[in-house]
Design goal:
The chain is built from 5 helices and 2 strands; from the N terminus they run ββααααα. With 85 residues, the protein is mainly alpha-helical. The chain has one domain. Strands 1-2 form a two-stranded antiparallel ribbon. A hairpin with a 2-residue loop joins strand 1 and strand 2. It is elongated.
């Protein structure tokens, strides 16, 4: 769960329909979250640290925080990423 304005919002990973009903993020940020999810899925084998690829090593040059701040709104970092970490 994550908290915003004193309210608890459950996070159901893998349930996009539930995610879209939450009032936690703006519509633009919800769209960005879906793009981020699809991007992570597209990386596939590159995220497997047991068998790194060239893309794996390229991804190591940038932290998750830096990536989110450079490509997405700060709300995603504050309200979604930090509570999960």
């Amino acid at each position: 769960a994550t908290f915003y304005d004193g309210k608890q919002y459950p996070i159901k990973i893998g349930s996009p329909s539930d995610f879209l009903t939450y009032k936690l993020l703006s519509i633009k940020n919800k769209k960005d979250m879906l793009k981020l999810f699809l991007y992570a899925r597209s990386l596939g084998k590159a995220l497997n640290l047991d068998r790194p690829t060239q893309k794996t090593f390229e991804l190591e040059n940038e932290t998750v925080t830096d990536f989110l701040c450079n490509h997405y709104d700060e709300q995603i970092l504050e309200r979604i990423a930090y509570p999960i970490l």
